[in-house]
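Continuing the series of single-chain predictions for the mutant panel. This is the parent chain; the variants come on the following pages.
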Amino acid sequence: MRVPSSFKGLMIPPLRFLAIVLFVASPLGTAAAQSVGTVTKVQGSTTPAATGTPVHMNDRLRTGANARLEVTFNDNSKLTLGENANVVIDRFVYNPKKSSAQVVLSSTQGAMRFAGGKIEQMNQKNIVVNTPSAALAVRGTHFWAGPIDGQYGVLLLKGRLNVSNQAGAVTLSRSGQGTDIPLRRSGRRAQR
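Parent structure:
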């Protein structure tokens, strides 16, 4: 292939071109994603595996058997995962200048505890936890949720919590209130 003489100075050797493409596509070539928190405690087999590891939106947090993981978010809220847990941080936005915050977590397995930090003081806050058994709309910010005695349990520790699924909804408004949701069994479909 002949290259017009006016383009010869613009030709990039193949290896240099590949290096440029890889750099632009890598995290180093773009602004690094902003951290929304840090791993503050690790026990056993977890992902991420070390304290001090930054946590970002869309990160998947996992624990193995007999493992625990604690993340402290930028507002000092704490998310603690029990053993065999799997949680994705879908969204964490904390904006004290606008007195607003939004947290969306997706928990597909295991137990978790959320204890709010400065997010509790925001005028506009939206905290949602999606689980296979129910959606939790948090109006206070201290609760525990996870499998217990063959069901999915939710326990309010402080604040207010709406728990809903296809079968209905319940509001927990006093510390110590809880609800149990039957787990779906394989081979059985929910009736519509």
